[in-house]
Amino acid sequence: MTLTATAPPRTTRPPAPLRRFLARLSPYAYITPFFALFAAFGLFPLLYTAYVSLYRVELQTPGQMEWRGLDNYTSLFGDEYFWTALRNTFTIGVVSTVPQLLMALGLAHLLHYKLRGRTFFRVTMLLPYATSVAAATLVFAQLFGRDFGLINYLLGLAGIDPVDWQSGTVASQIAVSTIVTWRWTGYNALIYLAGMQSIPADLYEAAELDGASRWRQFLHVTLPGLRPTVLFTIVVSTIGATQLFGEPLLFEGSVSGGISHQYQTLGLYMYEQGWGFFHLGRAAATAWVMFLLIVLLVLGNTFVARRRGGKETER
Length: 315
What we know:
The chain is 72% helix and 1% strand. The chain is an all-alpha fold.
């Protein structure tokens, strides 16, 4: 008896042009989910906000839209509280960002060298960032209390009169900036530390052989190597400062940012317009002004950084 093996079924392969087309198309299939989510939750809300900013829309009747054109923007720029919020945003952003990044750079420089318990200190750096903004702000609100706050108690020991941290303009902005600085210093320190570890060790060894002290090594080796990282933290901190919302809202629990709007930021102003006064059109206009402001600030920071980098390269 003779057994004959059956031939395997023949598979038809697609033509060569179709295979090349599918090979070129396959990378885009992997990134399609990201762009689909970005379009649904990032691009569409941005464009729809721009559309709503051109209409008069009330929160009670969101389906009734009345065309206003640029009137929401002109009324926004004519509101003195908008300029107060813009000024407060800039002040709080500078007071919180500059000390924050300087302290983060110093802490990262210390952790870059061999210390006992470096892992413990690195984990400790992230604890403020991992803490809820609501919990952190409520604790700091108690610390900055006028009558029974720990800060005023320590100032009293030094012979300084109690400070009304929630009513004074400068004092309240310093208090809010302190919360922001406490939450983000450790986060930026770890980013700087990662940037320092990417700098080749040969540069430090060559500088040490040339007799450079640690301070000279920091100025001429660490800082030039950290320029892209520093630019990244400046941009991220600028965006965060422009969008500041949780800390000033929970510091006193007031949407207006104090009795005289002394620490109301643009984020609080937008929230007050939309959910306090029910003017969704003006809130959308405020959101777009914040977006354009962030774009201008980021472009300005990038231009200054590239210009300084070009001058140093010419030297």
